[in-house]
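Run log // design_07
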């Protein structure tokens, strides 16, 4: 077949049709839109909500692009500058036609002692917009945003100079600001890996400290030194152990001193009366170990929980979620330990509320058979804790986190035999490590919501669930996970997140790219035997390769003629032909046809004709993790051996 006539016809047709995408250089500059109408990025939802409630100013920007139908908003000028410099940004969005930034020329802007920007007695709507090319920026002042350095724009040079004189910094024009690197975007791969190591090290240190609570001397033995468990706890001096021999003990007990309750394992049974939490710790450094707990109350829903703790958004969420009944409740009990405890519960297993540095390990929580009737295995509310080496069966979520930045959830097992909703559920939680957990039979194995930042989702195994791993927010790291036999393997409503070394096998859809802003970096992943390898229906083209290397796609057309480990043609997993190359007879031959090759070349050259979906410009010839791929492809769709 001669490709030249086909290419000529395609060129003529496509070039004529591309006239619909030509921009009118004489067109008027578009007016700025309300910021809430933009597709925004740059800071976490929790950060922006809290800043708004506190009256803290965050200079913002909005951009109109030549190849993107939506206006993109940026919280913080540094986040815009770093995104404009990101590799592949222009290929995906096109040229930034118009850039607006906040204009504080008419605002009574001041800087507080802690560096935050405020405008006293003025709503946020007072701020105007100024084209970035016409603005005067103050860089390097003492002003800060919740994300770091504040770059403050003004339409009037004299006002900008006065701000710099009072608060420090230098005046810069837009071109100078654009040439600056603020490091507000995605960390490099090595930085992510160092973060993983640091989070593990922190968890190891916290675990070692917490286990020292088990070494406290025994001061009181229930049944010998005191007739009841409550009397023994009351009699025990601080920093000692209450020994609880085998037997069944009535509980609904509050521990308000730093003591350790230690039983004999499953034979030591703490039984509540079905109302409230069975054991509540209200002092730092409480130890709870080697016990079985039942008789937990069933209060966990908003209609059953007091909502009189405040009117702001966080008080309402905490009242609805954080004050339910539990087997063990840690309330302002930082540095405490819950270890080798089993809980049968219709509500929560363990609640950690405002209890940083607590450790929950080797617990077994058995929740309600129907997740709608239960709640969380572990709930961390404003608590940077460690949850490890535990098993969660049924209930609503295995581990739920809320405003618990930096916590570690590792080496746990979540089993949703009754349809558990989420294995690990992060809400308003940034910089967390979720590592080496095994999740099966849930709605979603790991889900990260509410626009957080910097989460590390590594080494998890999720299978037989509706969705494997679903990460929202930005600047996170999703690596070395195995997602198999799920409806969706990976779902990515995230932005500026790195996905690498994941094994995505035998899912209905391997990777669902769900963000309107295509800034994720997807490289060095293995895709095999998914019904559809990837989908991406929103936004512009996703480019899933970097530095000359992409991902492994089982059955992708092409050859490694150069021996560099990269196939000699690009691969578009969302294309109707490429996407079926591994499982439909003749699809590989058709995908290699000169006519389709010519079409791909022309689409890549003409901005207006660039297709939506995903393209891997440098598909790998061999798997990145061959042993893991071989193991998973040898299994059937139920997760058992082939």
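design_07 sequence
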């Amino acid at each position: 077949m001669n490709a030249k006539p086909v290419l000529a016809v395609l060129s003529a047709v496509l070039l004529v049709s591309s006239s619909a995408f030509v921009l009118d250089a004489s067109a008027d500059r578009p007016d700025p839109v309300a910021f809430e109408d933009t597709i925004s990025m740059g800071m976490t939802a929790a950060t922006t909500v809290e800043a708004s409630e506190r009256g803290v100013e965050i200079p913002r920007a909005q951009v109109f692009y030549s190849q993107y139908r939506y206006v993109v908003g940026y919280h913080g000028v540094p986040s815009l500058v770093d995104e404009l410099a990101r590799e592949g940004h222009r290929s995906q969005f096109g040229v930034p036609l118009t850039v607006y930034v906040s204009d504080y020329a008419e605002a009574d802007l001041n800087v507080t002692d802690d560096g935050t920007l405020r405008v006293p007695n003025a709503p946020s709507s007072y701020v105007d917009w100024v084209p970035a090319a016409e603005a005067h920026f103050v860089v390097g002042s003492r002003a800060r945003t919740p994300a770091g350095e504040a770059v403050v724009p003004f339409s009037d040079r004299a006002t900008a100079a006065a701000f710099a004189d009072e608060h420090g910094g230098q005046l810069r024009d837009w071109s100078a600001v654009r040439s600056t690197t603020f490091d507000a975007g995605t960390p490099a791969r090595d930085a992510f890996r160092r973060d993983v190591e640091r989070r593990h090290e922190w968890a190891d240190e916290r675990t070692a400290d917490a286990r020292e609570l088990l070494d406290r001397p025994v001061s009181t033995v229930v049944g010998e030194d005191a007739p009841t468990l409550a009397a023994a706890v009351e009699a025990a001096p601080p920093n000692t152990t209450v020994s609880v021999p085998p037997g069944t003990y009535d509980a609904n007990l509050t521990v308000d001193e730093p003591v350790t309750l230690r039983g004999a394992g499953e034979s030591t049974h703490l039984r509540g009366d079905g109302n409230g939490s069975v054991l509540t710790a209200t002092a730092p450094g409480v130890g709870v170990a080697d016990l079985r707990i039942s008789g937990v109350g069933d209060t966990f829903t908003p209609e059953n929980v007091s909502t009189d703790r405040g009117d702001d958004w966080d008080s309402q969420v905490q009242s609805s979620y954080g004050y339910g009944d539990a087997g063990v409740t840690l309330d302002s009990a930082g540095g405490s330990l819950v270890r080798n405890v089993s809980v049968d519960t219709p509500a929560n297993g363990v609640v950690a509320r405002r209890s940083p540095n607590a450790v929950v390990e080797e617990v077994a929580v058995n929740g309600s058979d129907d997740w709608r009737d239960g709640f969380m295995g572990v709930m961390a509310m404003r608590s940077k804790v460690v949850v490890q080496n535990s098993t969660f069966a049924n209930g609503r979520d295995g581990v739920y986190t809320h405003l618990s930045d930096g916590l570690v959830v590792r080496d746990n097992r979540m089993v949703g035999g009754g349809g558990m909703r989420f294995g690990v559920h992060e809400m308003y939680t940034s910089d967390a490590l979720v590592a080496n957990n095994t999740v099966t039979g849930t709605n979603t194995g790991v889900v990260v919501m509410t626009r957080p930042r910097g989460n590390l989702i590594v080494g998890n195994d999720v299978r037989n669930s509706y969705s494997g791993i679903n990460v929202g927010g930005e600047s996170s790291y999703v690596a070395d996970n195995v997602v198999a036999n799920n409806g969706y393997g990976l779902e990515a409503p995230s932005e500026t997140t790195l996905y690498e070394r994941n094994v995505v096998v035998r899912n209905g859809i391997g990777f669902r790219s769900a963000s309107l802003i295509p800034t994720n970096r997807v490289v060095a992943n293995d895709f095999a035997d998914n019904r559809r390898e990837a989908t991406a229906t929103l936004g512009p083209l996703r480019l899933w390769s970097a530095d000359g290397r992409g991902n492994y796609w089982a059955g992708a057309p092409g050859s490694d003629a150069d021996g560099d480990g990269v196939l000699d043609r690009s691969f578009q997993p969302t294309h109707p032909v490429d996407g079926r190359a591994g499982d439909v007879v003749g699809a590989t031959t058709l995908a290699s046809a000169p006519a389709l090759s010519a079409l791909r070349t022309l689409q890549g050259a003409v901005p207006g004709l660039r297709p939506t979906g995903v393209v891997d410009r440098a598909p790998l010839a061999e798997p990145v993790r061959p042993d893991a791929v071989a193991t998973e492809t040898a299994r059937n769709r139920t997760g058992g051996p082939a």
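Residues 505 and 632 are 7 Å apart (CA to CA).
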